[in-house]
TrEMBL record:
PANTHER family: MEMBRANE COMPONENT OF ABC TRANSPORTER YHHJ-RELATED (PTHR30294), TRANSPORT PERMEASE PROTEIN (PTHR30294:SF38). GO terms for cellular component: plasma membrane. The chain crosses the membrane at residues 21-39, 160-182, 203-227, 239-262, 269-289, 325-347. It is a multi-pass membrane protein. Its main location: membrane. The lineage of its organism: Bacteria, Bacillati, Bacillota, Clostridia, Eubacteriales. Keywords: Cell membrane, Membrane, Transmembrane, Transmembrane helix, Transport. Belongs to the ABC-2 integral membrane protein family. Signal peptide: none annotated. This is Inner membrane transport permease YbhR.
Length: 353
């Protein structure tokens, strides 16, 4: 009964705090929307200029790029340096020379991809139109890519969306829970609670349930927005994705309240972010760890988001079921229980029982 009384009070308090509600629901959706726009706004056709290009190659490049033929190489190089165009393509001594500015890797990679594709098309056309080469048996070897998961139309955002969904749920819940619990202490509310016969574990569970109601709704809203607002396809079970997100949020919630017990003000709480939050985004799958030192791989196993991101990526992109994702789910559940126990122990400095 005491637990539900605490949960009811916390619920009313959050409902009356518009900033907390905005942090939970508006902020993650807005950031995810911006991220989707940025990652889906790649360079479809780079702007190039060409010098002394064979007509057939020029036609192939026109299919893949916005290319204009020019005569003055020095002026063209100046336009590349000043980022007026993405690159210069020159045919000299039976060789294609491509010059890019180089500081923008997205533009450079776009030029490389487009020129390579155009050159392959040019070689196909050249060999096919030469009867002598055909008689000698020369031919271009075609390549074909088969995808076990995903497709050639999958964008960068489609790949990182499950990871970002888990991270933003974890991050914003951590902020909301940590700041709210810290305010409870600073305002004296926690001290008044500790002066009553209520047990420490009942206080922890009360806060967990009170915050947990909003965390559940936040997780559901973000997941629905990712699927119906941003068009992310979930190959596995949406219910399983929801379960992983809820467990991630539960771990973040209890971690936030735990660390707030060791902070005297909001600034000190934010000092935990570089230690607790930033490493998690490095280890959540955005960056490959296959070739990193062993100690980096061992360190990544400490953080909850490592397991949450692994489960989300498996379920959303590979269609994993519970039989393959159960270990990550159990570990996330274990983290939530561990942080609840540690929260109760952290309150010992206010009262023994």
């Amino acid at each position: 009964m005491n637990t539900f009384s605490v949960a009811k009070r916390v619920t009313k308090q959050i409902l009356g705090d518009r900033r907390s509600l905005a942090l939970l629901f508006v902020a993650p959706i807005f950031v995810l929307y911006l991220l989707s726009i940025m990652l889906n706004s790649g360079i479809d056709k780079p702007n190039l200029e060409g010098i002394n290009l064979p007509q057939t190659l020029m036609e192939s490049l026109k299919n893949e790029t916005n290319i204009v033929e020019v005569q003055d190489e020095n002026k063209a190089l100046d336009r590349v340096k000043n980022n007026v165009i993405d690159g210069l393509v020159k045919f000299e001594n039976d060789k294609i020379i491509v010059t890019v500015e180089g500081s923008d890797m997205a533009a450079s990679n776009s030029v490389k991809k487009a020129v390579s594709k155009a050159f392959n098309e040019y070689m196909h056309t050249s060999i096919a139109s030469n009867p002598m080469l055909k008689q000698l048996g020369f031919r271009m070897i075609d390549s074909e890519y088969n995808y076990i998961n995903g497709s050639e139309n999958m964008t960068t955002f489609d790949t990182v969306a499950p990871l970002m969904m888990g991270f933003f749920i974890f991050f914003f819940v951590f902020l909301m829970a940590g700041v709210s619990f810290l305010r409870e202490r600073i305002s004296g509310t926690l001290d008044r609670l500790m002066a009553t016969p209520i047990k420490r574990i009942e206080i922890v569970l009360g806060y967990f349930l009170g915050f947990g109601i909003f965390v559940m709704f936040q997780t559901l809203v973000i997941q629905l927005f990712m699927v119906y607002g941003l068009g992310i396809t979930i190959k596995g079970s949406p219910i399983l994705v929801l379960l992983v997100n809820v467990l991630l949020a539960a771990g973040s919630l209890t971690l936030g309240t735990l660390l707030s017990a060791f902070a005297k003000n909001e600034f000190q709480l934010f000092q935990f972010i570089p230690i607790v939050i930033v490493p998690q985004i490095l280890f959540c799958g955005l960056f490959p760890l296959r070739e990193t030192p062993i100690w980096v791989n061992v360190l990544s196993k400490i953080f909850p988001l490592t397991y949450g991101a692994d489960a989300l990526k498996g379920i959303v992109l590979r269609g994993y079921g519970l039989s393959k994702a159960y270990m990550d789910i159990l570990i996330l559940f274990g983290y939530a229980l561990l942080f609840i126990v540690l929260n109760s122990l952290a309150l010992k400095k206010y009262r023994r029982l």
